[in-house]
Write a structure and sequence with these properties.
By secondary structure, the chain is an alpha/beta fold. The chain is built from 9 helices and 6 strands. The protein has a domain of 142 residues: 2-Layer Sandwich (Nucleotidyltransferase, domain 5). Strands 1, 2, 3, 4, 5 and 6 form a 6-stranded mixed sheet that branches. A hairpin with a 4-residue loop joins strand 2 and strand 3. Helix 1 packs across helix 8 and helix 5 packs parallel to helix 6. The longest helix is centred in the last third of the chain and has 21 residues.
């Protein structure tokens, strides 16, 4: 079998150069039981994870010209459990922030939640119904900086109130981004979150919607969190929650953001269905130009 044809989700050479040192170092620290370096190239393993993230296919429906799904599953779950997925994500986030002329760690973040429907294969014990949005599934909580980069992720049953999600996000923010001093939230996060932030030295500010304004109006600071959720929806694996373990759902968000950031750093265009339509041309006659061009002119 010759070299396979690339998929739009494949890593470019420039993208792979950004994460190869970290993945290569991880592989050197984790040789196989028999001592060999493994039968599959790490770049192809990452390509397979990105393919599934973008297309949303099941493990057993992975294309045959990518590594076997069992091998891809092994690395996905191994990197999820030892934190490699988040470590690669955080490394790229620091580079994106530095490229934008900012410090590695933000001083302010947004927090928001999103409820998504869960697939039928998701265990009922890890799902619930969001009473406000009348949606059964899971709830994603994210903290993101002003550049639309994810700082922390929490995934729970949709029935969980925003308060415990907010406190869990604050704990992660304080651990992973200790420079954060301000957090903007919506009214869904109550006094419990504000008090927890105060204990951590973080000022939690609720940005409220003006009740006199009708229709959709982007809220200052808060609209960035909505933008982050919008970019995640470009990855079909995240349009619905398919993961049996909430930890896997969190890992999917890190991988989606990793893809967004590698493309951002390398200025690689993301494939889109909004491709411009090819220009239309007037049909021509075999005997000459179109009939309209042959019409005789009349004197004014």
């Amino acid at each position: 079998m010759g070299e396979r044809k690339p998929y739009p989700s494949d890593l470019s050479d420039e993208e792979w150069a950004l994460i190869e040192p970290f993945i290569a170092a991880w592989k050197a620290r984790h040789p196989s039981v028999s001592g060999h370096r493994g039968a599959y190239a790490m770049r192809e393993i990452v390509n397979a994870i990105r393919y599934q993230s973008k297309t949303g296919c099941q493990w057993r429906y992975m294309p045959h010209d990518l590594p076997p799904h069992t091998a891809v599953e092994y690395y996905f779950y191994r990197w999820r459990d030892d934190g490699t997925d988040q470590a690669v994500h955080d490394l790229l986030r620091c580079q994106v922030r530095e490229r934008a002329g900012r410090a590695e760690d933000p001083t302010a973040v947004n927090m928001d939640t999103q409820s998504v429907q869960a697939a039928a294969t998701v265990p009922a014990g890890t799902t619930g119904t969001d009473a406000g949005k009348k949606r059964r599934g899971r709830k994603r909580g994210i903290a993101s900086d002003v550049l639309g980069l994810v700082i922390a992720v929490v995934v729970t049953a949709a029935s969980v109130h925003d308060n415990p999600i907010g406190t869990a996000l604050l704990d992660k923010v304080a651990l992973d981004a200790p420079a954060v001093r301000t957090v903007w939230t919506d009214a869904g996060f109550k006094n419990t979150v504000t008090g927890h932030g105060t204990a951590l030295g973080i000022d939690v500010r609720v940005v409220r919607r003006d009740p006199q304004v009708r229709g959709f109006v982007p809220l200052p600071k808060r609209w960035i969190a909505e933008q982050v959720f919008g970019t995640l929806m470009w990855h079909r694996r995240l349009v619905r929650d398919y993961e049996r373990d909430p930890a896997s759902a969190e890992s999917r968000i890190y991988w989606a953001m990793t893809t967004n950031m590698t493309r951002r750093l390398t200025r690689t265009a993301t494939a889109t269905w909004r491709a411009p339509a090819p220009p239309t041309r007037a049909p021509s006659s075999p005997q000459g130009p179109p009939a309209a061009a042959q019409a005789p002119t009349r004197a004014a």
